[in-house]
């Protein structure tokens, strides 16, 4: 979209934002990212690249006041949140958060929270990235995938690879960590080659971000579905992650994101209580919506912004302002 169109639309966009996010109503949109790619990836069309993020940050800088998550949550509760406040968060601990996203955020003068799953630091890889990189390398033709509950699958073009990535991710997401790792190893063998092992940050990169003022939050050790674990194992994931982050950053984390994050499906109120008892003051889910002063501070909703330009980014933020009081775990 030509830049002049944004310049023409900017006054209207400002009016829409200020109408939707009036100070008296105290509504807080929290944006959720994972990766920021250097260049677009045809196998991950939903993942923003640096150019796309730059346009989104331009829109946020023009129309919103981006605050640190912890500060915003406190001010939301106290009714002191400024008009059109927003927060930016990243999940998992990808290296591109350090290499690409943070330099852009720093130049824009915007804070962010990065929720780190410590078990994948230093040459680790999330299971979904194993799926993507393995499917990228699988030869064209028929593949037997009965072990994954899929059966025979014909890889013929880019579209079929995208379909297979979705199917495999869905098949693996709710398995135990051990079973998921076993099947991922099988995928790696099928791809007949080493996969990238520098996708996630190192501990030193996490430490560097913390020293630069980035909020490093908890995200468990192994990124399990907490609701699938025994209570003791869930507590271990939360507390061990907290302690490892404290060691890495020399400061105790105060924010947390639930892995996968769907209330009642991926975590329950019991897990929210575990997070609170572990000393986390704010936690976010993936329930889609905008937080309000009535929201549970340990279950704040978020939403994804993957619009390709500034106008549609602001329009998305405006639309999401209508979805308040998102679901919480029971």
TrEMBL record:
It comes from the Bacteria. One of its GO terms (cellular component) is extracellular region. The keyword Hydrolase does not apply. Keywords: Signal. Residues 84-330 form the NodB homology domain. GO terms for biological process: carbohydrate metabolic process. CDD domains: CE4_NodB_like_5s_6s. It is found in: Secreted. GO terms for molecular function: hydrolase activity, acting on carbon-nitrogen (but not peptide) bonds. The keyword Signal applies. InterPro entries: Glyco_hydro/deAcase_b/a-brl (IPR011330), NODB_dom (IPR002509), Polysacch_Deacetylase (IPR051398). This is Polysaccharide deacetylase. It comes from Sphaerotilus hippei.
